Amino acid sequence: MTHPTKIRATYKNGVIEPLDRISLPEGQALEVEIKAFPSIRSELSRDQKRALIQKICGSMKGTWGNTVEEIDAYIQSERNSWDREF
Q1: Mind listing the pLDDT tens digit for each residue in 37-47?
Q2: Looking at residue 60, what is its pLDDT?
Q3: Most buried pick, 42, 52, 81, 84, via CB within 10 A?
Q4: Domain, as residue range, for 30
Q5: Who's near 74: CB < 8 A, 6+ residues apart?
Q6: What are the angstrom distances between the C-alpha of 57 and each of 40, 45, 65?
Q7: Average pLDDT of the chain?
Q8: CB neighbourhood size of 33 (10 A)
Q9: Integer Cα distance of 86 and 83 in angstroms
């Protein structure tokens, strides 16, 4: 592996643990660039989402959608866009 490769990993107990398989010889020196992702808070319940939609129904109405399903779809599309290459 001589070209740059991206992998997913977690940081636990002071150690970076790869989530993807890595094919490197034991003891291989590496250069690591850290990009931390924002913590994902627990999901809102349907009632909490409906209440939130009602609160933002003023000037923001329709920006992300008008139903729980439309807003969920918008949020998912945004999460998916975090992994795209620029």
Answers
A1: 776 666 778 88
A2: 59
A3: 52
A4: 9-36+43-81
A5: 64, 65
A6: 25, 18, 10
A7: 78
A8: 6
A9: 10
